[in-house]
Amino acid sequence: MRSRLERYFQFQELNTNWRTEILAGATTFATMAYIVFVNPAILGEAGMPVTAVMAATCASAALASILMGAFARYPIALAPGMGINAYFAYTVVIGMGIPWQTALGAVFLSGVAFLVLTVAGIRERIFASIPAVLYSSVAVGIGLFIAFIGFRNSGLIVPDKATTVKLGNLSDPHALLSIFGLIVTAALLSRGLSSAMLSGIVLTTAAGAVFGLVPFQMKPYRFTEITATAFQLDIPAALRLGLLEIVFVFLFVDFFDNLGTLVAVGKKAQLFDSAGNIPRLNRILVTDAAATIAGSFAGTSTVVSYIESAAGTVAGGRSGVTAIVAGLFFVGALFLAPLAGAIPAAATAPALILVGAAMVSHAAEIDWAKPSLAIPAFLTITTIPLTFSIANGIAIGFTAYTLVNLLSGNWRRIHWMLWVLTALFVVRFAYLGQV
To answer: What pTM did the predictor assign?
Structure first.
């Protein structure tokens, strides 16, 4: 049986073994385990039950990662995505006043659309039509958006009527706790600790408990509490409201997040074939789409491939066993759900800020010397956090790219599909100007 599994996962071809794969899976889990606490904190602000969301986060991450490892046989773990969960909570539910059940329905629809596009072979064509600069700038903009939310949740930045925002009260105990968490987590990251994010959250929570900033009483917990979010999605309501834009954003972010992860992890693990192609690509894409659909049923926002999987490949992970091991760790994390209420915003805020810092690194991929690329990129990056909307940033960035390149004589570089998207965004802006 063991030798059969080794043949299935191509241990000999990939020059790996069980010990290496198990350690790599544990490393991958450690680097992304922060999502177990951060995702409930974000979706909880949208009115979703925190304990149930934590259970849904673990369940969806476990199922998706195991499926990726067993079916696609890649060392890529999945979980509810950062950035897209912020869009779900702050833009869709809070900003637009859409019930979280309906928003989950939109997540489901995006997953179905993803699956259809994958099976039809259209997904790769869409990727080819959208300039890399827009992908990079959206990633940077989302990073700033997440960091801004982290600064707000920490109390380090507060609203101000005269200047919109200002520096918060640094003598406030919760703000000081966030500063402590930010410094500690940054130091752990600088030391190269694979579990830096998770360790930072735990240490900050512990410090808060010592100073009486974490009021918590252990309550009895049963996995059945996940029913507060599981199967609560409202697909008919999402269809009635015609949430095309929301579905598109879910689709867009997941699309590029997954492809970016594939390239990064594939390069580190040397999984590309001699022609530079990704073997079993369709299986990877089908798994990703199925994971989003399953996540919507469990009660969480879009499930995506995690770039933190690269940590597992650095540790030697080459096969799907790495992802399966990470998934099994998420199964174990299900029993930590009662701790969700003990994690204060001051402990998760530093993680949001530092995740944002990591995402800003994509700015290096932008050719800032070319105005036709730099200006649309800049507008995308700045309008996402300043309008507090990923959708607005994407719409403005796409429209700016098309118009700037058209008027500068570079219209040949604009794919026909981008013309269609731009036209839709112009109609959207015209509609918003009348409401």
So the answer is: 0.72
